[in-house]
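A favour, since you know our structure tokens better than I do. What I am after is a single protein written out in full by you. Could you add the entry underneath, on a fresh line?


***
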Amino acid sequence: MRRLLAVLLVLSAAACGGGAVSVDAQIAACEREPDFATRVAVCTAVVRAEAASASQRALAYANRGEARFNLGEQARAIADFGRALRLDPNLASAYFDRGLVHHSRGAFESALADYDRALALDPALSEAAQRRGLALTQRIDDFATLLIRADSLIEADPANAANWNNRCWIRAVEGVDLGAALSDCNRALQMQPAEAQTLDSRGLVYLKLGEPGAALSDYEAAVRLNAQEAHFLYGRGIARLRLGRVGEGQADLDAALTLDPAIADTYAAYGVSPTTPAAEAELDVVKK
């Protein structure tokens, strides 16, 4: 506590002095301070410094996120990494560190998405490659466990539509046995035709099957049932984009992001991202 108070007094005095030297000193402390509680305070000072550039604030948010993760503040750490990446989308270390947080929570899909982004920006980031391999193995084990549990629930109560939707969703997110996933969702919707969550699940299945028209029908039905659900709006936006309805699709994405700023990351973790037919054609050319 005495160390933290002393650092805060120094930062306050430096701020009164104004110049670039004080900001440089704050940035150095934000990067190297070994005491995590103190680092949070120091990095916060950098974020608030008028003289700090956008890239400097991005690094400060990332360093504060790392400190908060080490303090056990996972949600606040993820928020800081998100702020860092909004300021600097090419900050590979922020993607990697956010992946570590997701990984520690057992959110393997989100962790893999962040590790992939980090490696795309910095292929030499060997630790990200190692962590990605570990997360992939754990995700496969987790999927197998979830599927066994879902099978047991259906066997115990086959008349419960939610159980069929649950197994449909597990397969849809993993992208495995999509035909079986579709059958599960259809079975659930036969029991409860106006269930928004199941329509959302089947919409994701159709997106992964490459059928945006069918996906759009399901997402539109889900949105009619709940127009304030970001997940439904974002899925509808992706389906519209893939059908070439760019203006409508972008409007849906913007509305979803207003409701839930993390929704793009959620879909990215499913392996689904907003693309237009033109963008997909360009990607095919690059792959060839």
